[in-house]
Design a protein that fits this description.
mainly alpha
Amino acid sequence: MARGDDEESRGFKVVDRRLFDEQGEEREDVPEPGPAPADGAEPGEGSGPGSVTPPGATDASAAAGAGTAPADSAAPPLDLDLGSFIKSLLVAGLFQVGALAEEGREPQAPDGLGGRQSLNTLLMLQRKTAGNLSADEEQLFRDAISEMVVALAMRVLLPEVARALGLDQDGRVDGDAARAGIDELAATVERVRDVARADAVQTLEGALADLRLQFVSRVGS
């Protein structure tokens, strides 16, 4: 059941007065607001002869409307577009993997889960909008995915495999974890191959080849 149908079945109706739709486009079918009360109307007027305004009702109405801003003072809608959204996703992802930091602060420890989710979100959005993008938007997606996947690989995926291969100070080798990490990196390369820049794909393939050599050297074939 649609949301509007459910709400009408409960005895009330919600009218969608949003100025923009889910794609950020300005709507042309926004309902006009209802008529305002006539100027000079007194409280309780029109309720019939002899009607009496309950004591305190006028004060209560004034208090209720005290926090209501005039219609002409309402804040304008945010000017959002797809390009701004793509950039915001990229910046959030780069912060998550520690590739960006606030001024005067050290980068945070890489958040592998958050970084993976940011890349997945960019890839999902690119896939869902394919065929409806301008040339500039297509290039922005390509650049954002390239930067995000390289940052994720260099700051999360490669270090995880290196630790599993005992290349850190610990020195302990976990062959299963190393193999799983190499497989994940290889799968990531294939996922972005057609939507990332060629130089980003080449960087990932070079890192993957090095890890495979290290795996053979330390674990075996």
